Amino acid sequence: MPSLSRELVFLILQFLDEEKYKETAYKLEEETGFFFNMRYFENCITNGEWEEVEKYLSGFTKFDDNRYSMKIFFEIQKQKYLEALDKREKGRALEILVKDLKVFSTFNEELYKEITMLLTLENFRENEQLSKYGNTKSARAIMLVELKKLIEVNPVFRDKLQFPTLKNSRLRTLINQSLNWQHQLCKNSRPNPEIKTLFVDHTCGPPNGARAPSPVTNPLMGSIPKVGGFPLIGACGPFQPAAASAPALLTASIAGWMANPSSVANQAVSASPIGLSASGTADSENVLKRPRPFGISEEMNSLPVTYPGQSHAHTLYSSDDLPKSVFANIDQGSTVKSMDFHPVQQTLLLVGTNIGDISIWEVGSRERLVSRNFKVWNHGACSMTLQATLASECTAAVNQVIWSSDGDLLGVAYSKHIVHVYSYHGSNDLRSHLEIEAHIGSVNDLAFSQPNKQLWVVTCGDDKTIKVWDAVTGNRQFTFDGHEGPVYSVCPHQKENIPFIFSTAIDGKIKAWLYDNLGSRVDYDAPGHSCTTMAYSTDGTRLFSCGSNKEGESHIVEWNESEGAVKRTYCGLGKQSVGIVQFDTTRSRFLAAGDEFQVKFWDMDNVNLLTAINADGGLAASPCLRFTKNGNLLAVSTNDNGIKILANSDGIRLLRSIESCALDASRVASAAAAKGPIISTFGTSSSTTGTSIAVADRSAPMTANVGLNVDSRNLPDVRPRVADELEKSKIWKLTEIHEPSQLRSLRLPDSFMPIRLVRMIYTNSGGAILALTDNAVHKLWKWQKNEQNLTGKATSSLQPQLWQPSSGIMMTNDIRETNQEDAVPCFALSKNDSYVLSASGRKVSLFNLMTFKTMTTFMAPPPAATFLAFHPKDNNFIAIGMDDSSIQIYNVRVDQVKSKLRGHQKRVTGLAFSNALNVLVSSGADAQLCAWSMDGWEKLSSKFLQIPSSNVPDPFGQTRVHFHHDQIHVLAVHGSQIAIYEAPKLECLKQWIPQESNRLITDAVYSSDSQSIYASFGDGSVYIFVATTLQVRCRISLGAYLPSNPRVYPVVVAAHPSEPNQFALGLTDGGVHVLEPPEEGWGSLPPPEIGAGPSISATGAGSDQQTRRTKSKQRQSKTRRTEMQQRRDERDATSAKSTLRLLENTVRDILADRRRLVEVPYTATLGDTLNALVANKVGAVPVAAPPGHWIGAGGTMTVESDKLTGAVRKHYIGMVTMLDIVSHIADDRTGGADLDKKMVVPVSSIIGQSLEGLSLWTLNPNTSLLECMELFSKGIHRALVPMDSQMENVQGVELVESASSYRMLTQMDLLKFLKDHASELEDIISSSVKELGTINENVYAINDRTKVIEGIKCLRTALLNAVPIVQSSDDIEEDHRQLINGKGRKLIGTFSGTDLRGCHFSALQTWLPLRAHEFTELVSTSPLFAAREGLSPKQLVTCHPDLPLSEVIDKVVSQHVHRVWVVDQQGLLVGLVSLSDIVRVMRVSMLSKIDVM
Question: Biased-composition ranges for Basic residues (predicted)?
């Protein structure tokens, strides 16, 4: 609804409130969704008016709008449920559970189970989490506080919680003003007019009864429209009442997750006063030209017109900034269909043509770097349809080419089924990456998307679908089906961390999709029902579309996302376009479209054509065009199969520099050949920007980000461009920052004493900074999430809060009896930002970062802790560097030191884990680095830093280590130097030593992307290094961020975890400064030194001959390492491919030979069920009941239905396992010791005795192997599989299922399948169970004196299926009726619930008093066990820790056991390996193999 209509609603609401029409006002609030009346909402909740609460809330949001809305609805339903339970209204509670709460089970199955279990409790307060639940009134009050917080942060409610400030009776005032206006227009106005009605315009009757002229036709008014009638209310541009459902649908379904409505308010409506405009547009020129109303002064009318909500400041750019000058003509050779400039190296142009060719051009030198023709890479993998199409015509046109956001990948969409994805490695190195048969017919568009940091490819095609593919593996992630015609284009985007996709079809329909399988969220028409493309402005805040229909009519418009309406329609497109008009946006200011053999430009805020150019003629009728990312260049297609490159002044300067570099290259070719290629030690990230050549002209805006197209990835086979390097080395200059105006700096607020900082770190979320002072006090600064800071991350633009909990306590380390001069303070932050480990010379403290409370203390000195680091895989393990030079691996959970590492000679000052290499690197005050294996904690290598004897006063100062993003290269920081080492051998690759011997390095750290190194010095300066070369890129003096104070300098540096250009300095006076560069960054990258080897020293010491020998050895060493790495990579890639092939299997493949389902009716007795288990040799059976009378276990609805009619035949209400039967037998409340009485109860009464029986799991046959493994890795032993499911488009686990037949899939079936494919898993299962972390060391056991009935009770108590039997000891007093710790005890047998299948029900009564060990021997003689492949329960299945996983799987499958006991050489228990453990480690290993691809 346009903004004036919205304001009218507020006026009506005020009127209703003043007239006491409360209920009507609430109804209007609910129906319009413009104002959420929090007071009314509170009253309804306080009074328990739940129906009204839900109804009112539904007017603003639905439960699935976002996670905040879901939480709001859940809390309300949960409170209703608890109140029903509190009133002992179990029937009402059950109704709420099934009707209202069940919908949430899809999102959190475990929580739904726990809520269901409350029905079984006499008082739900017995649940630990609800033990503090008070009475209804207090519970509602507490819930209300939580709901208000959720509503305030929910984007759906943004701008809906505050009623606008209005003068009293504003609507009446406006009506009176309108009447006064009308009265002024009366030809025969009377002094005291009588107003009788508002239904028609007021007129004063003429003296003789003649009718006064209408104000509309009054010649004095000219063209002024009739006022007072609100002519603009309801105007929606092209969305007229006939299509009114479209905006409504958009507002209801998508406005909450797309844009903040206020940020894209409808300017066309709100810009002008009511009644003064006859059109929907309100650009400033038109408004200023309109006639002003009577009674308004000329000064008032000439005030500048402002646009409410408009936040686009475009005064920085003018039309002169548009690239309109023709710089170059490129001959492509065939008709250009699509183009895209490289996002980083912005003079690289990717082109696709009508004959299937793609090319990469260096537009500065007019050089074609890469050319590829259309060719199917793997004919054998093509569908028969595609093969038949290719047989008739083997060519295809390119419909779309596009780069990924970092320029590492490029995608090509062809007119025949296929999408190709290439990886680009600089220069002419283009490698095939993925071939996807994406659609049936033409693939019309392609785009890259990166939701949740996963790179995906989005495609659309003639088969009317949109599909999403994993850009790494090529696996399909989603298929969106809903268009009625071929889908023409896609536009993925993300707002407020919610990713979505717009799609358009050739029939003019526009739809929007979330990354789920719930269908389109909006459905409306493009202007003119045109075939349309959509694009956002550069800053991502404004949405535009452009297209043409069958009649040749073209439309280019801006959309109001929050209302689903066209915001403005731009004028100037031709009436009869040839083909579909293409367009592009640039600088968040301008639009450009190719039309009528011209390029037409618009200012985004003005609907009139800004300018049009023909680019010296020769353009295509509707040319293809594309801007560079910074808007300095524009590529336009011509009618002679060519491309024109247009440029502005900055673009021309850049292109001429490249052109001159290319001309100069021939002059230095011989010198370049002599010096050889430039060598870089290890590759940088793909996001690295190329070296800028625009530094010579510092005034040129935005050119600093434009790079020459040298290979920024530093691959060994890139052809040298020495001429470029020589040219760049002449013009490059170190960036010096001396003034505060040259950077963005913020000193954080601080009320503490000015005590020196010793440690500092950003939280992992990036929203806070934690620091530790010399006096053991912690300080925490938090940035708030608000309209100025939507992400809530640290920034130099906004002041954070020096945070303390409401309790006022401080996080302070224990420093009693400590000499602070000798203490080495240290801390470490957990990965989830919840806990801090810290020490300042005394005990290590574990703090809760939310409450500042001390959770525990440990490790009292001596020795004292000097450095702390969390284990990357388990927060319960920490590495502690000690003052006595040792490193202790400590388990916080059990308060035990697991390992003690010795290798340093002085105290440990640094620790860093590498998850990729599985190593720990340590550094010490002895200037030594050590690498340790995380498997057995043995030392792998050690190296001493190469410290010049005369450069630093203290050669044994602190040394710290940080891992590069690749987790292979290590940054070592010492007062004398910074150096790069390669783990685990710790070979020194690069070293930088200050030229001034008195310049002390105080700290250094990698940036978040590991492309830069931030280093601080004792003189207060900060250096920014290029991480790959250790060349200084930028130097910041102390005066740039701090008033001159020679006694203050930075002692610690911290890098923001996700913003590469942001870092913080901790000073000796306790202050913290956050530093960020100006818009152009930290200056241009320095050119690599010509002929420089992999190791660079700033001192340049040593003879030339020695240097050459050293470099030669290093090159040879690097070559060997490269060859070894290549072999490892090839082996890993081969293994990954075989793993990928295996993962293509589904549950249907695993179930190929499964027999029919064994089940029991709900009326069967427990004895009948036990006999069924025995007869069919199974461990569990589903229980079937008539439909409509039962709630399935865990709220499931799994039914068997007729295949033809769909009529439901039976309902599976749960699963009964041997553990359920065992638990029932052991329960003294069910018949005491009378086994006969216990065994005649109906089986339906014991469902849920074990955890597995609480839910009935189903797996769709199309579920992937990986998802199936995930389920079974979490302790689920079996699931039902519908063989002909009636549920469509379902994969994975479901709560609702309908099919005509089912099969049972178990963990054992999965293990058998994996065993059959052992050859494809050889590199995983060849590792030992110890290496893979498969062993569970928590082993509960019974001893050989435990009786059968006691053993059964032990199984029931711990909900275990089996326990080991260990030898009792005369030296230890233990209760044989209880479970004991079996670790380290002699294993003699296994007692399992499945052993009961070895005896008929009639014999079980006499065997219960026997000892469990005797029982296993007796039952082994049972004929029932003789039928089980010769396996006896007396037979022990064990393994040693070093046994390969493949042999353990063989034991499991061949012996048909569900666990293997792990014993040492003496037969003492070490742990166990369960089926869940095996599936878990295999799944993790398979995922890691996929990452290789």
Answer: 1108-1119
